[in-house]
Amino acid sequence: MQNLLLTPVQHVIKYTPELALTTPVSILMNKLCDSIEVDWRLFEGKTIELYVIDVNKRLQWHCRNQRFHPCISRQKADARIAGNLNTFVVLIQQSVDSDTLFFERKLQMEGNTEVGLAMRNMLDAIDWDEQPPIIAVPKRLFDSALARSLSS
Predict the structure, then answer these.
(1) Does the pLDDT at position 1 exceed 50?
(2) How far apart are the first and last CA of the chain?
(3) Facing residues of 64 across strands?
(4) DSSP 3-state assignment of 109?
(5) Over pLDDT 90: what percentage of the chain?
(6) Nearest Cα to 73, choosing from 62, 85, 84?
(7) What is the mean pLDDT of residues 34-62?
(8) How would you classify the pairing of strands 57-64 and 107-111?
């Protein structure tokens, strides 16, 4: 079932340049990585791509010096995780186990599976309740709005 709240978000993402999306997400990812244990050896020198199928957006980062940097131009990704926007939202909300999303083929992984699994595990390790308010509060507001839209 398509979530009505996601429809406007899908349009915004669809018509926003990829670099304008990738840059703030890389800042957020780096901030989140400060709060969890990351095996940077797996990511160093690698290009990682999240492909949001339903809005046809490829967000790419290159890892160097234990930080994720947005790719200025499209590169061949070492690891790629693909899915619809709703699936990525569910993954971030941690409302469905990531293994389930992969087994149900709602998320697909291509390329270096070790790097892809490390990225997925990194996202799973984030404790949203332990994040600073600048990260946790917008997520809680989004979760609340999402819950209200599903119950209407």
Answers:
(1) no
(2) 13
(3) 67
(4) strand
(5) 38
(6) 62
(7) 92
(8) unpaired
* CB-CB contact of 49 with 59 (8 Å): yes
Give 12-65 as a DSSP string.
HHHTS-HHHHHHHHHHHHHHHHTTS---HHHHTT-EEEEEEGGGTEEEEEEEET
pTM of the model: 0.81
Q: Is residue 3 over pLDDT 80? A: no
Q: Which of 9-18, 112-121, 138-147 has the lowest mean pLDDT?
A: 138-147
Cα 26 to the chain's mean position, in Å?
10
Selection from 96, 46, 86 nearest residue 66 by Cα: 46
Cβ–Cβ < 8 Å for 84, 1? no
Measured between alpha carbons, how far is 151 from 109 in angstroms, rounded to an integer?
32
Nearest to 116 by CA among 108, 126, 127, 128: 108
Integer Cα distance of 80 and 88 in angstroms: 13
